[in-house]
Amino acid sequence: MAQKSLSRRTFLGSVGGTVSSSAIVLTMPMLLAACNQGQQARLSGEKFKTLAEEDAVELEAIAARIIPTTDTPGAREAGVIYFIDNVLGDKREEALSLLLQGLRELKASVALTFGVAYFHQLEEAQQDQALIEIEDTVFFDTIRYLTIAGMFSLPEYGGNRAYVGYDLIRFNSQHAWQPPFGFYDADYAEKGQ
Amino acid sequence: MAQALAVTFPERDEVDFVIVGSGSAGGIIAKELSVAGHSVVVLEQGPHLQAADFTHDEWGIDHNYDMKWSTRQGYPQTFRKSENEEAELRDSVCGYAHNVGGSSVHFSGNFWRFRPIDFMEATVRGTVGGTNFADWPISYEDLEPYYTKVDWEIGVSGLQGPWDPPRSREYPCPPMPIKGSDVLLERAAKQLGLTPYPAPVAILSQPFNGRPGCIHCGFCNGFGCEVNAKSSSMIAMIPLALASGNCELRTGCTVSRVHTNAAGRVTEVVYWDEESVERAQRAKAVILCANGAETPRLLLMSESALFSDGLANTSGFVGQNLMFNGHSSVTGLFGAPVNAWKSVPTTRVVHDFYELDPNLGFYGGGGIDGRHPTRGVPLGFGLVSGQVFDGPSWGVGYKNNLAYEFSHVAAFNGHTTSLPQGSNNVTLDPTYKDKFGRPAIRCTYMDHEDDLATMRWFLNKSTELMEAAGAVKIAATYPETGQEGSSHLLGTCRMGDDPNTSVIDSNNRSHDVPNLFMCDGSTLVTSGRGQPTMTIMALAFRAAEMINNAARRNEI
Q1: Shortest CA distance to A32 belongs to which of A146, A164, A137?
Q2: B407 and A188: CB-CB below 8 Å?
Q3: Domains of chain B in sequence order
Q4: Most CB atoms within 10 A, among B30, B199, B367, B458?
Q5: Interchain contact, B58 vs A169, CB within 8 Å
Q6: What is the ipTM of this complex?
Q7: Which of B325, B323, B371, B329 minimizes the C-alpha distance to B458?
Q8: Separation CA B67–CA B529 (nearest Å)
Q9: Among partner residues A70, A153, A183, which is closest to B337 by beta-carbon distance?
Q10: CB–CB of B322/B426 below 8 Å?
Q11: How many domains does chain A have?
């Protein structure tokens, strides 16, 4: 994987030695700064505590097809893989072993079909083709679940960095709102209903 | 302030009352009895969380079960549809919050009162074969003063009107401002000639009783309120109980057993304290308010030579007649932002179908309110988006749909009746145990065919409403193969005059054990139309008064 890993490793390394052990300890200002380093915040040097790097790269590549990067950030920019790494290490041994087994099978299937060693080495269209083959499996369901969870959980868990997940759906996690809350109640008030 | 006055009682001295559980009922009864001068020890298995502990942490709440607890925390439950099946291990079947205030901390705060018909429906409507459908031993009129007490002491926002059941006093707070999802419901309902009205909620629309009004953050259902605007027993009752100087609240205490003596009276409650040390608190009387799953489990675990089928279970009805309430949900997609994820879960309700026409050929009734289809939570919506409107479930198409849908959807939800059946119950799982070695709660449940028919009827009516509301896409769902869990845990120690067909009398006293009382969701004889907590709280105020009176007459 071609990493332009200036960036976060250097940046985070300069902030403090503790960050490498867990994405949870990252603070928001650090994350914002880190994300601003570029949209390619992938596997940028933070160590994984549960996953092997090789497996993390594969899982991230799958996550990035589930919520792709388009004109808006996707799973990759949200740091979904760090969320996945965190929660798999939190009493989810069964899911972890299921994913690792699934990755082994995917690897074998990718080698057979496309003649490459890894899923992440495929072109996007090939990746989608490979995923369509397995989209009814528990393996895919589990990655989809964790990808979406990583996109929309609080950044403390490692994903949803700089709230890119919330921004995508125009959800703002501010703590206080005042009416009107949306179009229809504004219209209701305007018409004096 | 309350903490400074906290009292501690020696375990070997008899206190007047031990209350198991500090939730909707336990918190109220603790406050009422301690303020009346009785010594009270409350045993609560969870921690005493405060407003500052509550966040918008959907992963923690919904997926790690931080408040509800599950197998992850060492509290497995099992489920099966019928007694012929072996129950399967599940993360959560009977869902309730484990903390001071219990589920009143994380509930949606939807606070419909039951109506007069709910208390006498078996007589009016006729029995339903194969069920234990029965009248209550008390009437709406008996309970009305206590509903009003809930309004004013707990804090309810709403608007008096012709659609409301009869009430002796106005709501203390005006209704919540209407949300877009409910504008859509209200306009559609009026088109169909119905009478939508402001939903009563246990959330303050303005400052009341020293607490602030709602800030509309949107995280009510499943979450604790971070400003104390939600009217939990944790914030409305427990501080008063502690301030009485007569109530000791012991948190982190897991009850294993209620002991009885040879005379058949309860003597003490055995529990593990927060250090997992086994202890026992002696008491003149015991009140179980542990909820509709935990209360029957504790009674079944408290069997003895004298009570071989479980404590207070001569009727065989302990744990039986479990009712979840039915539900259905119709989601519509709209052309402008609804933003139903903001503010309280719902602000309008349609109660025109509280009782369905008997000529339909099945029993049932309910209400419809407007909501966000996934309680406003983003992760939960991300999981269902794609399936809801038959779009892609991953990839660019999924992402684009999701980005639009989250703020542009509204749901019209049906909340409906469940019939009491002996085959729907809570029992002790023979295989799985919790981390203390207590048998796991085993839930056996299959909705009655009338309950499923009722859900379908409400699904169709909500679809009609959604069409009238002008939704561009509509998706409808209900648990057509039967529910497999709920946070409404009703009927498992039900109230009645006949000791053969009920567990407690009309004063919440065990038919079998004179100094044992039960009050929580298990008390309910019928399910109402969803939203049971208002009634559980009213029953708690009433039970506290009856228990206090009996204690003063030395009749316990």
Answers
A1: A164
A2: no
A3: 7-552 (3.50.50.60)
A4: B30
A5: no
A6: 0.95
A7: B329
A8: 26
A9: A183
A10: yes
A11: 1
